[in-house]
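pinned: reference chain
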Amino acid sequence: MDTTRNTVLEAWMTEHGYSSNSLAEAVNRAIERLTGRLGGLDGSSVRAWKAGRVTWPKSAARTALEDVTGLPAVALGFVPRSRPSSTPAPPQQEDPDMKRRTLVGSIAAAAAAAAAPGTTSPRRIGMSDVNRLNKRFAEIIASDHRHGGQLGIEQRAAALADEALNLQNAGSATQRVRSNLYASAAAFRSSAMWAAIDGRRYDVAKAHMREAQALAEMSGDQAIKFRIWSHAGTMYRHMGRPADAFAANDVARNLHLTRRDPLFASLGLARQGAIHGTAQDRTGTRRAFDQAQDAMLRANAADYRPVWMLAFYDQAELDSLSLSAHLALGDYSTAEYHAHRCLSALRPHMIRSRAITTTRLAHAQLAQDAPDAAAATAMKVPAEAATQHARVTRMLQEFGAALRATAPGSSTVQTWTEHAATWRMAA
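pinned: its C-alpha cells
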C-alpha cells in the first residue's frame, strides 16, 4: 500500500495552528453541524491522514474537513479512490512522487495567485486576527475580576463583540476562522451580559443575552453556549425567579460538553445548587453540591479550556456558590464554613469575588448573633467595592440595616456607621 505522507495537509495544519487532536475536534463539530450527531474522530484519525494510511476520508469526515478548511479534499493532498473496473488497471506510468509534487506545486501556485496584490483581492482574515481580539478579551476578563459590574466593562466587551462581527465582512476567511470569530463575538457579548448582571442592570443584560445566544448558535461552540445559558440561570436566580433559573441552567447542563468535561459538569451542578438554595430546597442543594464536588475532583486540570473558565472556576468558586445557597436557606453556620474556605482559596486577582464573599460572611456571622465579629468582617471590604460595585453596595446596605436592628444604640453600630461614612467620602 502507498503510504506517502500527505505533506499538503501537514503544511495546512502548521500554517493554521492545528494539532492532530484539535483538527479532529474541529471536524467532529463540523460533522455535528452537518448531521446533528457529533463525529467520532480523534487524533489518531488525523495522524492516519497525514501519514498517508488514509488517502480518501469517508464522505462525512471529508465534507466536514472541507467545511473547516474552506478547501476541497484534493487541494488538501487527498487522492480520490478509483472506480472498480472489470478489466485490470493499466500499469502505473506516472511516478507517484512526481504526481504529488505536481499537485503541491499547483496548490502553491493557486495560493500565490490568490495572495497577489490587486484591486479586487479581498483581505484574508486569519486566526492571528482572532487571537488579537482574544488577547484584548483577556484584559476585559481581568478587569471584571478586579472591579466587576462596571458600565465601562460592559461597554468595552460589547464594542469588542461588534469589532469581531465587523471582521466577518472585512475579507475572506476559512470556515474555522469564521466560526472562531462568531464564538469570540459571543464570548465578548456574554461578558457584557455578565457585567450588566453584576451591576443589577437586568433589562440590559437580557438584550446582551439574546445577541450572545444568536452568535453562539452561528459559532457552533459548545463552551460559549454553556457560558451564556449558565449566566442566564444566574441572572434569573439574582432576580428571584428560580423556575426560569432552573430552565436556563438546564440548557447549559444538557450540552454534551458537560459529558466530555467534568469541570463544566461541576460548574453546572454548582450553579444548580445555588438555585436550589434560592428555591428553599435543602435536599436538592445538598445533592447538587455533592455531585459538583465529585465532578470537580474527576476533572483533568491539563485539559484545554477557554480563558474565561480557567480565570474563575475552581474550588473557591464552588465554595462561594455553596455559601450563597446556604445563606438563602438560613443555614448560617454552614454558610460561614464555606465563606472561610472560599476566602482561603481565592486567587489574588479575584478582588471582586473577595469583596462579595467577605460581605456574605458578615451576614452569616450577624445572623448567628455575633454583631461585633460581623461588623469587623464587613469593614474589611475595600472602599472601591463598597461604593462602586452595585451588588456589594446593596448587600452592605442590607447588612447595616440588619446590624442596627440586632444591636440598636450599641457602640458596634456607631463604629459601623462612622466606617460606612468614610467609604462614602472616599467614593
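why pinned: The two ends are 76 Å apart (CA to CA). Strands lie at 123-124, 171-172.
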